[in-house]
UniProtKB/TrEMBL annotation:
InterPro entries found in the cross-reference section: PX_dom, PX_dom_sf, SNX10/11
Biased composition (Basic and acidic residues): 150-163
Organism: Sakesphorus luctuosus
UniProt keyword annotations, A-Z: Cytoplasm, Endosome, Lipid-binding, Membrane, Protein transport, Transport
GO MF term list: phosphatidylinositol phosphate binding
Protein name (Swiss-Prot/TrEMBL): SNX10 protein
GO CC aspect terms: endosome
Compositional bias per record (Low complexity), positions renumbered to this chain: 164-182
Record carries keyword Membrane: yes
Highest taxon, organism lineage: Eukaryota
Chief localization: cytoplasm
Length: 194
């Protein structure tokens, strides 16, 4: 029987500049569904990217009533653990409901949102064929870059000066940097695809 497990967890405060900060959340997916290119993935997304996703899904599936996101509370305080956890729970419930609908699962934007770290603009460009890479290419490239455990990333950075240039990944065509993909996911070797 097919399953899709989604967890929204590990909220982190990120500094945008000296005046602005935001919180992003780790989205962990584990599935055996044929709809997914990768069976395990982990990305980080912020609230406004969820808002973008819901708008795009709604515009492509006008007859479906999409679940609501947690309301944008004008008194939201990112230093208040209750506010942050309430939003995290709402985002998880939103994704759980979205992932139960076969029509929504056919939308490439959803897969790029869940399985790459592409920006909304880059996801739109990819889906509309304006990039040199396909949706599947983007997901595979992100997965290959993101397979290392965080400690391996640190070891690789320390040894980078000693490594030859051929060992570097061909990530430049997707503009995915190591910083944009390190979400600290820990997957057991058994859960990785072979």
């Amino acid at each position: 029987q097919e399953f899709v497990t989604v967890l929204v967890r590990d909220p982190r405060t990120q500094k945008e500049d000296s005046w602005h900060s935001y919180i992003d959340y780790e989205i962990f997916i584990h599935t055996n569904s044929m709809c997914f290119t990768r069976k395990t993935s982990c990305v980080r997304r912020r609230f406004r990217e969820f808002v973008w996703l819901r708008q795009r899904l709604q515009s492509n599936a006008v007859l479906i009533q999409l679940p609501e996101l947690p309301s944008k509370n004008p008194f939201f305080n990112m230093n208040n653990p209750h506010h942050v956890d309430h939003r995290r729970q709402g985002l998880q419930e939103f994704l759980e409901k979205i992932l139960q609908d076969a029509l929504l699962l056919s939308d490439s934007r959803l897969h790029l949102f869940l399985q790459t770290q592409l920006s909304p603009e880059d996801m739109e460009a990819c889906v509309s064929g304006q990039t040199r890479y396909s949706v599947a290419d983007a997901i595979h490239e992100f997965a290959s870059l993101n397979r290392r455990f965080p400690i391996e990333d640190e070891e690789r950075k320390k040894g980078k000066n000693d490594a030859d240039s051929n060992s570097e990944s061909s990530s430049s065509r997707l503009r995915l940097s190591d910083d944009s993909i390190s979400c600290g996911c820990k997957a057991s070797p058994a859960s990785e695809e072979s």
